[in-house]
Every structure is written in structure tokens, then in C-alpha cells.
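Sequence only, no structure available. Ideas?
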Amino acid sequence: MQYLSYALQQEHIINRFLVSETHVQPVKGEAVIIQKEANVWEGSVGAASHVNPVRETFVKQRRDAIEPYPTFTEKVVGGSVLYGGKELELSARFPFNDPVLSLSGFYPNPTWISATAITFLDAMKPMDLGCELSVCGGARIWVNQQLIATFTPHARNQMQQKHITLPLSQGENEVVVFWDEFAERDSDCNFSLTLDSKVEGLVQKLPIGERDAALVLAVEEALGNLSCKSNHVRTGEVELFCPNPYENQNLEIHLAGATEENFMVGDLYETTAVFLPSKSTCSLGPCEQLPIGYLQFKATVRVQGMSMAYHLAFENFPLSLVPQAKPTMDERKQQAFEVLARYGERNANRAVAILHAGGPQDEFEHILRRQITFINKRSDCSDFYLSYFPHILRTFADHPYVTVDLKSEMKQCLLNFRYWHDERGDDAMWFYSENHALMFHVCQLLAGELYPDEIFTNSGMTGVQMQQKAIGLLRPWFETFFAIGFTEWNSPPYLPIDALGFASLYAQTSNQEMKALAKKAMDSIYYILAVYSLDGIFSTTAGRTYPKELFGNNSNCPSFINWIGYGIGNTSHAGKGVTALCFSDYQAPLKYRQFCQVPQGKALVSQSTHGYNGYADVYACKTSCSLLSSANNFRVGERGFQENPIHLIFSATEQVWVNHPGEHNLFGHARPSYWAGNGTLPRVNQYENFASIVFNTKADHPVDFTHVYLPTMEFAAFEQRGNWLFAEAHNGGYVALYCSEKLERVLYGPNKDREFIAQGRKAVYLLRVGSKHGYGSLESFMQAMQNTPMNATAETYVFEDAALGRLEGGWGVSLQVQGQPVKYNGFDPVGTNLWQSER
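Reply:
I predicted one. C-alpha cells follow.
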């Protein structure tokens, strides 16, 4: 028997295991009514306090359950564990520096997930090994087949800790972990084992049969270095980097992936990256041959019959496929339908586009039937798609693609749906965020108008009663919205969902009051897009975001909505908020066009306040070549979720932000994740083209560093000088970023030449934006920044800016300019817009 042998990660983390396939089992429960106050959302974290009653019942059963020691067929790679009447194969788990073993992902329906992990620890002497067991879900641990710990907190998406002792004998010891969770929507299910202190000579071993261990380790090192030449491919070929460790044979990496929505339904694009002997680059071919959008791949290598998997992600956006924007909005709407019909993700947006622009009948029917099935299961996000059915049934009732059977299936789907949490259900649909609440109310009104005399089976109401209920919920929703704006401010993934609700309501309802409110709300969407987009690209501080938005600025939905309304931005594969806009007669307000682009030498400074009790105070400074935006003093020092409190862009690909990772996994599903959100929120302050980001992260958070995203290959020039990072954008914009701690440029892995890490829990970052117009050459800008009198510690700073004056602040105090605090709060959602000279 050969073994892969490893020292403990950072000398105290046990994370090398053979892991079984995931056991997945749907969960059904008693259909219940949930009585909650309508239209109350306190922000994502507060909304998450709503607990599914089906989950509560299931978790109680799991806490009382007794799990026997797992039954293995063979404790080696390729062996299996027997569970739930199935053989679940064991594979070596290659962590790529992630201390956490995770089953996390998105589960649209209630699901029980579990897995078994086994490892072997070689100890130089007998010992009682103290360690911290962290669990999201529940876990049971056996050492040498003796149960030594059961820990079943099952706190949804929250890691809980328990101190345990692993009794080790001298020599080889077997450690087995079974962990599980009730998964619904975005769900974390993971565990980690961290020793109290370093132990000399302790080794992790994984049995791999008769394979060559040295070769496996060499391929692991190579696969961990896999990356795309750029996070954004827009022209030419898709070039990958991965050093082939083989001298005389190809390294072949199988790639299977797609955009998020296509990935979830299994519509995968598959290809093989072939790296020739001793070479480190290869091409996947012209970018036009790959799907459009932010693509996430599982990258798999087979080494002597053994699988090894990692991830690859990048945005593919062939500029050659983007049509030239036509002069009028109506013409651009038809162009948008044509793009979605051909390149759209395979969901209801594409199905509707096919009806409007033409396309294969079999594709339309396949997509629509799959969407009906998805909604009939009451999958989470069903409300994002159900609103299209009334449009199809009304507008295309005589279309040959909309057959009698399809019409009947859509009708039954509408009549049997659960439209609010006060109707019975055992599903995992989320009702408690502003975008979902809006969509459920809109769907209910439109369905009730379509079938006024029919009985809706889940509520027992007639269509007329459904209309009355929906209007009674929509009125306070809009009243709240116009008063406080979006709690999930400027959210690239969810602003399009709100636009979907507004446009669907405006286009389809016969209620003139609701139609007028929907138009007013749609106008507000275009106001936000005009102020917080740069050349049509919507990329800004946000109340919620994901990696697919952060790294997908070319192809995100808001930029597509911009393109339709104002002819700037981009078309896209993603149709949320787009499709309903296109089948409406809505016209974007011309009065907001003035905010879309700023003349050279000028700056647009915008301030606004959003959400309950002044939840977020947003500040933005936009010039002809840059957009710096922030959420100021936002929940300083608290656990973050998916908020992005600081963001700078010069173009869709030239962008900078700073955050405290929520997890170690570069491709994880946690909220906050590695790049999206903050484990501990910093104090962010902004004044015109200056911003400070001050961190003092929680001592018990597993990630003990902060980092910068600055993709050097995207900029026209980049230079690192001591604690300063400098970059020049292709449009003449400049950025200077100072850190009180040493910034280490990442040179290995997917974030190579894109990430800069500051070790430690405290750090002060100072960010200054300039331009060729204001400073002349990049060298002049760099010298000006380096010569600026300043004093920065890990907690405080003073920066004597030649144009802006004395800027000072820190962890314990908000930004002051010339000794006066900057006012951030007390604005309304529209806020103020001041035109001034760039400085």
C-alpha cells in the first residue's frame, strides 16, 4: 500500500481525508403556515433569522439520532462506504490550503446532505490530542472505531465550535468523521479540526493503493496553479496556465462547467485542456466557441486512474458577438430578444425571447417544461420565473410553439402555486427579502388577473381575492420602497430581480394604480444605473453581491438594462430584468442620461441613505474615467454577509476592492465568501476621490489576513513600491493604494498577479484615485502620492493630501477633513448629486 503523506497544514490543521460521495435525500415535512409580518426586511442577516418549521422538525430528529460507525468496503482511494442503501465511493480530497471540508452549495428544495471522511494520523507516541472541532451542521467523530465526539448544533450557515480530545496511540490511528445538514437554498455544511498547539512529528496519511505517490503530489502542485491568463476573455483565444509536471506526456485537464443557472440544471460545456510535455500554457480555442458569461468549471485530472479535482473560473465575453446598439430603445429591445434567443441561459428568459425573436421549437419546449417542473417543486427562486407565464398565455396563446398541453401545464402551475408564506407549504422558498417579497406579490396579482374566477388550490381563494390580497401587499411594499430605497443597495444580482418585478407589473397588470407605481419604481432603477455606472458598466458598492457579479461586469444584467435604456453598457446571456423590460412599452427617462457620463475634468459626487433606520450611507465620486463608491461606517466590526462596502472601477475589467475573506476556499459557497463580502466588516470612509478602509478583524475568525483585488494584467501599467500599489488604466485613470502592512503579491494559483495579501488582523488601507488629466504622467502621480506627508499605523492614519486637505481617521473614528467630520447619514434614497471639478 502506498500513501500520500503530509505534514499538518500550518502545523495544526487536519484537512487531508478520503471523502465519500455526498448522500443526498429530499426532505418532505408537514405543510405549514408561517405567520410573519409582511414586507419587513432588515437586511440580509436579519432576514435570515426566519427559520423553516420543516427544518426545525428535521434538526430535532437529527440531534436525537444515533449514528453507528460507518461501514467501509475498503479504506483506500476507490473504496467506498455504505450508507442509505448505496455504495458511496471514496476519493482523495485535495484541499488546496482550505482548512474546511465542505458540502456547501445551493439547494432549491429541502434536502438532507451528508458525507463520510476518513484519514490516518501517524503519531510518534501515545497522546491525547486536544483540538477544536468547528461544524456547520452536525458531526460525529470516531478514533480507531470508538465514538469520541458528537456535536450537532445545526445552526444554519454558522460555524459552531466544541473542544474535543482525540486519543491517539503510537503509530497509525484512524480518524473518521460523519457530517450532515438540512440544506435549503444557500447552505453551508462543513467541518474543520484545528489542534490546540503544534505537535512534533504528527503526519496525515491517505492510502492510494499502488499508485506513485510522488507523481500524485507533483500533479497536485501543478493543478493548484491552474488559472486563466485573465479573469476576463473578450477577444482571441482562451489561454490557460498550468505547468505540466510530466516530461514525456501530456497533462490533460477535463473541464466541465457553465454559467451559474446552466450549471444548476446540468447544462454543462465540456472540453479538455491539453498541456504538452514540460509546457505551462494551452488554448481552449477562440472565445466565440465557449458559452458567454462568468463560467465556473470543475477541473479534473486522472493520475494513474485516480481523480483529482479543483476549479477554474473566468468571464467569457466575446466582443465580436455584441451587436451595435440601434438608435431607439424599442429597436434595442428587439436586439436584446435576439441575443437572448441565441445566447441566453436556458431558463424562462430565453424561452420568452424565442417567442419574440424566433428560435427552435424543441429548445423552447424543453426549457419551458423544465421551468414548469422547477416551479411545481416550489423550488427557491420560482417566483423569478412564474411571472412570465401570464405573458406567454396572454400574448402567445395562438403561437404554434405554445401547445394545448403547455397551456394546460402552465395554468395548473399558476393555480397550484404557493404565493405567500401564510399559505401551507413544506418548501424552502424564501419570502423574506425585498426582491422575493416583491416578486411573490407581483406573481399573485398577475395570476389572479389572468384567472379571476378560478380557485387557487393552495389558498382556496378565487382569482379576484388573490388580486385583492396582492394589491394589499404591494401598496405597503411600494410605500416602504419609495421612503427608504433598497436595503440591498445597488446590488448587481438583485437590482435586476427588482427590475423584473417592476417591469412585469408595468407590462401586464390591468390595475392602473399598480401600473403607475411600477413605472415610478422602474424610473428609480434607471436613476440608480445612471449614477452608479461607468460608461454603462454597473459595478459599485453593493448590499449584496457574488463572485459572478464581481468578476462578470461585462455580462451582468444591470449593464444589459443600461444598454437597452441608454445604448451604453453591454448585451448579455443573462435575462433577469431584461426580458420583461423588453416586452413592455416602458421608456427610460431621458432626464437621467446626464448622470451616465461625466465630462473630463469634472466629478459627480453623490450621497444617499438606504434601508431601515439609515441602514447604509452610500457615497460615490464619478469622473470621466473612474467610479469610486462606498458604504460609510457600515456595521463596523460586525460579521459581514455579502456586502461590498468599497469598490473602484475604471472599466469592466480594471477594478479594485479590499475585503476580509469570509472563508479560505477560493471557490467556496459561503456568504461571505473569499472575495464577496467580509468576514469582519471594516470601517470604510470616502471623501471625493479618497477612501480609507480600516480592519480590525475578529480574533476568532479563521481567516487572519485581508487582501486586495487588483488584476495587474488588465491595466495599462502597474508598479509596486514598498507599501504602495500603483496602476494606470487604459482610459487614463490612476489608482494608488497604500497599506500599513506589507502587501504580498500572490504568484501561485488562480489569483496569481491579481491578489495582494496583508497578513494580520489589523490594517489601514488608503486609496487615492487620480487621472492623467489631473496629474500628467503616472510617474508624476506616483511621486505625488509617495511625497504626501502621512502617518499610518495599523489602526489610524493622517494623510495630508495636496488637493483635498488633511484627511484623518481610523478604526475608532470616522474620516475628518481639515478637522471636520464628513457627513454621511441623513440623506434619502435619491440623495444629492453635486457637480464639481475633479481633484
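The longest strand covers residues 105-123.
Hope that gets you unstuck.
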